[in-house]
Write a structure and sequence with these properties.
mainly alpha, 1% strand, elongated, Rho-GAP domain-containing protein, Rho_GTPase_activation_prot, MyTH4_dom_sf, MyTH4_dom, GTPase activator activity
């Protein structure tokens, strides 16, 4: 981080002699405001907004008074950065600064929480991402937790500073009670925030964050904040999804989200809709539906089958481990022309993956029926082309390997749609 900072930080000065602030101090918590951006930029709009955004970051963390509540402060910050790409790295650098050598546990937790919320909407630039990743990695171990027994001196210092502040205040008793109550709201262990941020950073670097023209909403801010504690149904592992689901639907053997979205596509006439799975649903409607599904709700006012179809593809694509686990990938692209061998691969999958995949194939087999193909114009080859990337993931960075494997992935999925017997799945939910 220091090496990157020496080349990219907009070095600040202080005092009447305008002495340059050291990199260490530039990347340490600051109670005051900043007069210029943290990062070097020639964009006038970014220069103006960066300083105002730093005040908002301080407001969210509780280090500065604000008229808005924290939810609206977060919305304002995220909307600024979502709309102005040049502010994104600036925000992440500001958060790195304000969560470094921060002695207020409440403020520290809030800073990490804001980073987690932001990563749900946009990624840092590729140039800065690896440095942010390194910063987050250094906080993955519980040794960095605010409740760590290795930090008694920090706790003592916080209490001493708070007492001094209270003594100077004429309303010391009332102020002491208020501040003590605030300090008790310390949030989660820092390692919990860091682990969540690390996973979100990996995902947002690939997906690019929030899509569409509709600006971020308070509901999305709340969703991003709640997902830190309650993992989303999107981007999690199948086992985690089923574990969460067990509390609500203990008898279900398949993911609720998979079954509900699949049935929703069919109920809205998706099997007779031209270009289904090829034509994307309205991205803002897909985002809105995603929020609902993450709360275990399916709205009743939908009319376009392309919306749940797009979200279903997204759910498969964002699974932490694909429906066909990576350890079976080589077998799949090796047996892409042999129906028996392809079916054998399916039979050898872990039970949960096998059930989810068979439901997926059974669902596609409905669309592959000639009576439906005549309406959708999506034959088995088209279905395999648009759906293979959602259940098989090539790990190579070589464009030639990716291109060659894409053809094999499509052929493998086509084999399953045509030859796999999925009749047993009809009675399973």
């Amino acid at each position: 981080m220091a090496d990157w900072a020496s080349k990219n930080l907009n070095m600040h000065t202080q005092g009447i002699f305008r002495r340059r602030v050291s990199i260490a101090n530039m990347l340490s918590w600051n109670r005051g405001s900043i007069k210029k951006p943290m990062l070097i930029t020639s964009d006038r709009a970014v220069k103006k907004e960066a300083c105002e955004m730093f005040k908002l970051v301080q407001a969210y963390m509780g280090d500065r008074q604000a008229r808005l509540d924290r939810r609206h402060v977060a919305l304002l910050i995220v909307t600024k950065c979502w709309s102005m790409q040049g502010l994104r790295d600036e925000l992440y650098v500001q958060l790195v600064r304000q969560t470094t050598d921060n002695l207020s546990l409440r403020s520290l937790a809030a800073g990490w929480e804001l980073m987690a919320i932001s990563l749900a909407f946009f990624s840092p630039s590729p140039k800065f991402r690896r440095y942010l990743e390194g910063y987050i990695q250094r906080h993955l171990e519980p040794g960095h937790d605010k409740k760590s027994e290795s930090e008694p001196d920090v706790m003592q210092h916080i209490m001493e500073q708070q007492d001094m502040k209270n003594k100077k205040n004429s309303k010391s008793r009332k102020k002491r009670k208020q501040n003590n109550e605030e300090e008790e709201d310390e949030g989660l262990p820092i390692s919990t925030y860091a682990k969540y941020c690390y996973r979100k950073l990996q995902k947002v670097a690939v997906t690019g964050g929030k899509k569409g023209l509709r600006k971020p909403t308070l509901e999305e801010i709340d969703h991003g904040r709640n997902a830190i504690v309650t993992p989303s149904l999107f981007g999690s592992a199948l086992e985690e999804i089923m574990e969460r689901q067990h509390e609500l639907f203990p008898s279900r053997k398949l993911p609720w989200v998979q079954v509900q979205l699949s049935q929703c596509v069919l109920a809205l006439g998706g099997a007779q809709t031209e270009g289904i799975f090829r034509v994307p649903g309205d991205i803002d409607e897909v985002n809105a539906l995603k929020l609902q599904v993450d709360q275990w709700k399916i709205p009743e006012n939908m009319s376009d089958p392309n919306v749940p179809a797009s979200l279903l593809k997204l759910w498969y694509r964002e699974l932490e481990e694909p429906v066909i686990p990576q350890s079976f990938y080589r077998q799949c692209i090796t047996n892409y022309e042999d129906p028996e061998a392809a079916i054998s691969v399916v039979q050898s999958l872990p039970e949960l993956s096998r059930l989810v995949l068979c439901y997926f194939i059974h669902f596609l087999q409905v669309f592959a029926q000639p009576v439906n193909v005549s309406k959708t114009k999506m034959d088995v080859n088209n279905l395999a082309m648009v759906m293979a990337p959602n259940c098989l993931r090539c790990q190579s960075d070589d464009p030639r390997v990716i291109f060659e494997n894409t053809r094999k992935e499509m052929s493998f999925l086509r084999m399953l749609i045509v030859h796999l017997d999925t009749s047993f799945i009809k009675g399973i939910v």
